[in-house]
């Protein structure tokens, strides 16, 4: 197995035993990308010299010493481009600072390496909305890798790099992880600072790891979690060692299957895989109970009001003046804004901005935005009540395995509806993980395990039990 295909925990053991060097790992990552990423398209850019120099300086006594981590291209890494998959920022923006998640990675000894592709500004579920390049699913040729962190998932699944960071506003870590067959964790809202993550939906966004194994997910979370004075939404709660107790098993855990998640819209084979996983956990001593999340049917509509509303506000900074590309010779000031935005943004981003501006406009604000916030409270209560009865909730990640490339282009509603199982965790703020199950007809599929706010230890433990079979 190549070093790039090896788990972080195993690389760590080999590094500390002196069997390999950090340079060996980085050299392998560079060579894998050079020889194979032409066919995958996971990386938008990378800087081999900087990574090799960092590898030579790596402090192996640190928890992630010498380990390269791929970074979704909407997280600022000092001196690197940060395009957000958009023509607006391509060749027009270099990050002037490190996001807090990146400075924490560096403090733990890791080497932020390369920029992974995404749906433009993280809007989408297939990475086909990237304004810059196509990303293929290495585990399912001809199929999308999922999104929006499709590059991050494909980089790990394609064994180009041992682990990556993504961002999840409505499922963008968990869904591509499921479609590509890797582990993807969306931590609780506030667990990880978003300082330096280009904002999409500020009340929903979280950064999180995509990895080969559950243990690697815990390892990365250990290093990037924690309070940050630069992000007032980050939680001032202690960060436990998430690798501790990972193998404690699920005996005595109470796990819920929400009846609203197992309806006709879900592919029977996906349903069967999730139910089989639940049975296996039951055989390992967990108690499986049916629960109800009665407002599930409103989650998609609620999310697709709140997320675009926040996006329309967040993306107003891309005006051709302060960031990114500026139109040449505009007729006047207004044309400078409108022409720059017209040329810079792709169709999905424009759709979100128009939707978001509409639901916030006077006369419609109360009917849409305010009502969506009220329904969000109802969804939050559903989960609060559920977590009084169970320790974690088992669900599919998506209703189907990865669709064929191009099959959903031009049908945004179909894509929106497929987010049904992942978006509630963002609306509510709780944590969720996707862990691979047995593939369906050769296509990867994940189990989603949802936990309460700051329930990362429980869902990691449960995911580890699934992984161990
Ligand atoms: N698919 C969802 C959307 O398009 C979620 C995206 C995300 O989590 N960044 O908004």
Question: Can you summarize this structure?
Answer:
With 469 residues, this protein is of the alpha/beta class.
Secondary structure elements and their pairing?
Layout (H helix, E strand, L loop, with lengths): L7 H9 L5 H19 L2 E3 L2 H9 L11 E5 L27 H8 L3 E6 L33 H8 L5 E6 L5 H7 L2 E4 L19 E6 L2 H11 L29 E5 L9 H16 L3 E5 L7 H16 L18 H12 L2 H14 L5 H24 L2 E5 L15 H6 L5 H6 L2 E6 L9 E6 L4 H13 L1
Parallel strand pairs: 2-3, 2-4, 7-8, 7-9
Antiparallel strand pairs: 1-3, 4-6, 5-6, 5-10, 9-11, 10-11
Helix pairs in contact: 2-3, 5-6, 7-15, 9-11, 9-12
The chain binds glutamine (GLN).
Glutamine binds next to loops.
Reading off the top of the CATH hierarchy, the class is best stated as Alpha Beta
Mean pLDDT: 97
Cα end-to-end separation: 22 Å
Q: Ions, cofactors, ligands: which are bound?
A: glutamine
Explain what you see.
38% of the residues lie in helices and 12% in strands. It has helices spanning 8-16, 22-40, 48-56, 100-107, 150-157, 174-180, 214-224, 268-283, 299-314, 333-344, 347-360, 366-389, 412-417, 423-428, 456-468; strands at 43-45, 68-72, 111-116, 163-168, 183-186, 206-211, 254-258, 287-291, 392-396, 431-436, 446-451. Helix 5 runs parallel beside helix 6, helix 7 packs antiparallel against helix 15 and helix 9 crosses helix 12. The longest helix is centred in the C-terminal third of the chain and has 24 residues, at 366-389. The chain is globular and about 70 Å long. The structure holds glutamine (GLN). Residues 122-125, 148, 168-172, 200, 307, 419 line the site of glutamine.
């Amino acid at each position: 197995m190549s070093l790039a295909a090896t788990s972080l925990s195993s690389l760590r053991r080999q590094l500390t035993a002196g069997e390999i060097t950090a340079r060996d790992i980085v050299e392998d990552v560079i060579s894998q990308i050079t020889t194979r990423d032409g066919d995958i398209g996971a990386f938008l850019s990378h800087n081999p010299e900087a990574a090799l120099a960092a590898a030579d300086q790596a402090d192996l006594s640190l928890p992630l010493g010498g380990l390269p981590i791929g970074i979704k291209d909407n997280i600022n890494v000092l001196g690197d481009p940060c395009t957000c998959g958009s023509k607006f920022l391509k060749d027009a923006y270099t990050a002037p600072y490190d996001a807090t998640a990146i400075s924490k990675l560096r403090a733990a000894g890791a080497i932020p390496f390369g920029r992974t592709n995404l749906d433009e500004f993280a809007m989408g579920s297939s990475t086909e909305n990237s304004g810059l390049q196509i990303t293929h699913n290495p585990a399912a040729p001809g199929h999308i890798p999922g999104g929006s962190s499709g590059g991050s998932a494909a980089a790990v699944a394609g064994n180009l790099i041992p682990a990556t960071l993504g961002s999840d506003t409505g499922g963008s870590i968990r869904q591509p992880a499921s479609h590509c067959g890797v582990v993807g964790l969306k931590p609780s809202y506030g667990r990880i600072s978003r300082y330096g993550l280009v904002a999409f939906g500020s009340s929903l966004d979280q950064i999180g790891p995509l990895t080969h194994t559950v243990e690697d997910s815990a390892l990365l979370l250990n290093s990037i979690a924690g309070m940050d004075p630069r992000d007032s939404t980050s939680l001032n709660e202690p960060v436990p060692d998430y690798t501790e107790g990972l193998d404690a098993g699920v005996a005595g855990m109470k796990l819920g299957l929400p009846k609203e998640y197992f309806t006709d819209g879900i592919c029977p084979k996906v349903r069967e895989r999730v139910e089989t996983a639940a049975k296996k956990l039951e055989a390992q001593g967990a108690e499986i109970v049916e629960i109800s999340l009665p407002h599930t049917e409103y989650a998609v509509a609620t999310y697709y009001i709140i997320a675009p509303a926040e996006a329309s506000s967040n993306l107003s900074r891309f005006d051709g003046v302060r960031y990114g590309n500026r139109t040449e010779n505009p007729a006047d000031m207004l044309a400078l804004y409108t022409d720059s935005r017209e040329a810079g943004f792709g169709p999905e981003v424009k759709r979100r901005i128009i939707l978001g501006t509409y639901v916030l406009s006077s006369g419609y604000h109360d009917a849409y935005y305010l009502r969506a916030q009220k329904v969000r409270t109802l969804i939050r209560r559903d989960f609060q009540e559920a977590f009084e009865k169970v320790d974690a909730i088992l669900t599919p990640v998506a209703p189907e395995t990865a669709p064929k490339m191009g099959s959903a282009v031009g049908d945004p509603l179909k894509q929106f509806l497929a987010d049904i199982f992942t978006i509630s965790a963002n609306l509510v703020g709780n944590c969720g993980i996707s862990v691979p199950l047995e593939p369906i007809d050769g296509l990867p599929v994940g189990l989603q395990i949802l936990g309460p706010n700051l329930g990362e230890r429980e869902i990691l433990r449960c995911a580890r039990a699934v992984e161990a079979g």
